Amino acid sequence: MSDVHVSFNLANDHFNDQEMFLPPAPLLAGAHVSGINAYHELYRNSINNTDEFWKTVASELYFERISNKGLEWNFDHKTGPIFCKFMDGSLTNISYNCLERNIKRGLGGKIAYLWEGNEPSDTSTITYQELLDQVINFSAVLRAHGVKKGDVVAIYMPMITELAVAMLACTRIGAMHSVVFAGFSAESLSARVTDAKCRVILTSDGFYRGAKAINLKEIVDKAVQIASADGVDVTSVIMVEHAKRVTIPEGARPINVGKLSSIYSSYESEMSRLKGTDSPVEWMEAESPLFLLYTSGSTGKPKGIQHTTAGYMCYAYLTTKCTFDADLQNDVYWCTADCGWITGHSYLLYGPLLNGLTGVFFEGVPTHPSPSRIWEITDKHHVTKLYTSPTAARALMAFGDSYLQSTSRNSLRIIGTVGEPINPSAWMWLYENVGNKHCSVVDTYWQTETGGHMITPLPGATPMKPGSATLPFFGVAPVLLDSDGRVIEGPGEGNLCFSRAWPGMMRGVYGDESRFVKTYFAPFNGYYFTGDGARRDEDGYLWMTGRVDDLMNVSGHLLSTAEIESALVAHLKVAEAAVVAAPHDIKGSFPYAFVTLNHGEKLTKELVAELKVLVRHKIGALAVPDIIQEAPGLPKTRSGKVTRRILRKIAEGCDTGLGDTTTLIDENVIKQLISGRNSKG
Ligand code: WT7
């Protein structure tokens, strides 16, 4: 896609703050939250009568036992430990709520997922009843492999319905799943396996992504080896034979897994071996851990974000219901995210199933076999709600509207985006060209840590402004703080924090209590700190301005600059590295690396290629820097701290306006870096 040129520039892509688009009338009419006054009233109620508000939400779900506890929390470390609890003492199970509860209300024969493979000829469907049967069956397999309540199971799988089965089977028996995106490298997988001491890995032989063959089994073998060297022995790998059964894309090589070692077993044979075995639901304490999901941390070591049962469940349920205006009768809902990210957890798996919806489950990529794929699937299944990323929107927009014109997309009602700021022209393209001006476009701001939407328009209520995530979700209290921690009232810009807990918030960093407090609560005592900057306009609308820490957002995925830097310095020829985010028309931003080489070394084409391979191996393709520039030295303060502020400016292409450089040890370094960048053209 690198040869695609787009005619807009993210940095200059600003619209008038005042320009508003009202929710289309048909959406307003039947919405769960209809009209902005209804939103304001419910919002006030969620803040003033928090427990009552959430009790009503919980009453729509099944609890085996209900306590009288509501939302309890403390964000002020001076008055005691930081914590959050929701419905403490209650018992429930999220997998039961997704499956049995819906089947009991007559949805057994309803399609849970319409699966679309990488190749358009590969499709299948699964009903709620079939999903439950497979979940019970697979939970018996997990139990037979020694998995019990409280264990962590690693899942490294392509986007196939067995992945949904695996996640729901874990939560059925109270085991935490830790899904690792199947684009991560063996080293990244093993780091996650080791951190949570996983004994069991669920995977598949491999899959095709576009025309590319990915042999997952090879990667798992390597990860198991590394984990074992680090003291964690994986005892079972359960492998779905998926690559074997699908259509091989034109030009791709077939995937061959070779010999399987004794820790391997086949998903299919284990399922038939234990078919019909009873495997009851494990009733879980409201606050017992539900799953782990690793996300980048600014120190470079990924954090295992820990969510809990009742709070996450109620939050995923209500946000899906309101933000996508869930319609049990008519919806075909499609979230294009991979289950390796939180969006796939909350809005492909749990949220839609809790709402009893039919969803599209897509294995492929938006551009294969052509950039019409998303619109073709939309028409084929009459998709009503589409949830995707600004990067996908920008990439498809860059291919031109001819790929849209062969489709009608008339079924669409709501288009959602997530993961990164959406620039107004991509927003307008979704609104006008994709949605034919009859859809609400919801720009949802949230994080792995928040479990669900925090700042988002509601499609039948909130007047939309292109590029703004608009107003807080129910129960959410955003606050902007200046660098001294003073609250900014009214219009202004600052650090985005939340002053109250919400049920779906993370409860900890796995195995590292102090990191939880240090990362999210120490920066501004009394508040949860997001790591993002935001601006509030005259109407009280919030506009995200990007990360204010050492994380960068590439195509909607968070990466740690420190993690990429440590991958680069692992090369024997590299003495030092500094990585910053530089603006990119499609990906939002990309990693730009400055490397200082050991004496006598030169940054040849071969070395650049070696460094890229190294980052790919240590982290994954996502993290590979688009540009690697040789730096004779890095700009440092007298105390030895690299000044990223200046490197960021250089990477952006600025020659002047670098700010105060007088505190640097060697101002000459900057001139060299600028001329080095310019000589790259
Ligand atoms: C970070 C969280 C939330 C699921 C996917 C990413 C950025 C997310 C938006 C948005 C502007 C956004 C923030 C946030 N972000 N959504 N609508 N507008 N920025 O989850 O990997 O935990 O990343 O993504 O920087 O902190 P994540």
UniProtKB/TrEMBL annotation:
It catalyses: acetate + ATP + CoA = acetyl-CoA + AMP + diphosphate. GO terms for biological process: acetyl-CoA biosynthetic process from acetate. Residues 39-98 form the Acetyl-coenzyme A synthetase N-terminal domain. The keyword Ribosomal protein does not apply. Residues 563-641 form the AMP-binding enzyme C-terminal domain. One of its GO terms (molecular function) is acetate-CoA ligase activity. InterPro entries: Ac_CoA_lig, ACAS_N, AMP-bd_C, AMP-bd_C_sf, AMP-binding_CS, AMP-dep_synth/lig_dom, ANL_N_sf. Keywords: ATP-binding, Ligase, Nucleotide-binding. Gene3D superfamilies: 3.30.300.30, N-terminal domain of ligase-like. Residues 109-510 form the AMP-dependent synthetase/ligase domain. NCBIfam families: Ac_CoA_lig_AcsA, PRK00174.1. This is Acetyl-coenzyme A synthetase.
